[in-house]
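Entry for acetamide complex. Fields follow.
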Amino acid sequence: MDLIPAPSHVSGHGDDFFVLGPETRLAAGEGTELTERWLRSTLGAATGFPLAPGSVDNAIWLSVDPAVTEELGEEGYRLTILRETVDLVGGGPAGLFWGAQTLRQLLGPDAYRRAPLPGREWRLPVTRIEDSPRFAWRGLMLDVARHFMPKDGVLRYLDLLAAHKLNVFHFHLTDDQGWRIEIKRHPRLTEIGSWRARTKIGHRASPLWEEKPHGGYYTQDDIREIVAYAAERHITVVPEIDIPGHSQAAIAAYPELGNSDVIDTASLSVWDTWGISANVLAPTDTTLRFYEGVFEEVLDLFPSTFVHVGGDECLKGQWKRSPVAQARIKELGLADEEDLQSWFIRHFDNWLAARGRRLIGWDEILEGGLAPGAAVSSWRGYQGGITAARAGHDVVMCPEQQVYLDHRQHGGDDEPMPIGYVRTLEDVYRFDPVPPQLGPDEARHVLGAQANVWTEVMENHARVDYQTFPRLAAFAEAVWSRLPAPAERDFADFERRMTDHYRRLDALGVGYRPATGPLPWQRRPVPEGMAPGSLGRPIEGAPPNV
Ligand code: ACM
């Protein structure tokens, strides 16, 4: 019974089975509708069985029970499989749904197919499982700005998150290289900002370009569909509109948003290379009003309490040279450009709080002090998260040293796109969202963690799959299961359990990186300075990012 992520308690598995067949019914109680629908459509497709409603002995019983809520929380579940019947009880609708994911894993890899294969017998081992997640925020961030992922791919990723009991989809919708969400009052954001004429191939230092237009965006109806599809899977979509840096696509669409007193913003286009653009938003009232309009539409589309405003890597060169920015610094009595960035973020912190939402941003936003409800995505290691938690802010840990999945999985220089540092499957498996420096009261501010997938060198969904899997499976266990301290984790056991999990990923059609070690042609001596699996050790000459 090789479950991933590993459940908290399993008891009494013998060699007896419940057999799922054409007569098996789904007996669904109140509050179970989403899971009922999901099981009928998913297992129905894989098995060809109707899973018709009804309460007979040969049934899967679904219910939500306050006693389980009390014991295991809203996201916990208890799954009891007997010879005659299956009883799945959730602490809440979400817990029930995570229990259904366990049920599907127990049925075997073919339960992940979309049509039945001939001659299959569907058996569930007699057992009792009690399970609940360690963290409430178990996320994946997907960058759809650097390379657009058409809607179908996003829906597929939501299915993949659900299969791993992950419940937050952080949707990085805007960046220098593209604006991906329709904003009705500012149509040029997508008319102009969603396409670029060409794209740098590989590192920013690479001399090569792909001379092919790249782009695309989600209409507001696409977004509504994505948010609803996620909600049916108990996944919250957290939108990110990145300000005041990473904004060149927006400035290309609306030049008045840029620092037009120091550069000719009207001549800017959507950026076609990688790195951090110097073209940042102007700290003017025009910009604030424009983005308030953007966020108004964003709030209408996304019910998430948290709204991500980016806040990372805002270069200050233009503000230093801009008379308008300097006048603003003076007028507001600010010390410098760093303070100006804080003022910018605090404006939207207050604006969101006044509308009952909470701001979350990359850890740079800590630099100028935050409103009490604001939260931090700690990406430059753990330090931002530690500082934030000590100051009483909630934190989502996503240190690039362990859970940036754009970084390579092996030290071979022919690893497809050898960018960044080596972050192996084992590095991810040994990731712990709570660093030892935090005491219990501080650790309560760690809401959880997320893996981040930046797509500069992932031009299509096959490349995203390759970078994301199998490491997302290790990440899922690190945030769901109550694992021992990192050094004591049984990685060999995890790898053994992955044998079954690769078969599930195969059935789902995931283009994961094969196995955990070198690819066949990488099985040769590893050069000095390229130690595979050495956590966070730089590869000679490799930049930390593209
Ligand atoms: C980031 O990786 N710039 C948040």
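NOTE: Confidence is low (pLDDT under 50) at residues 530-546.
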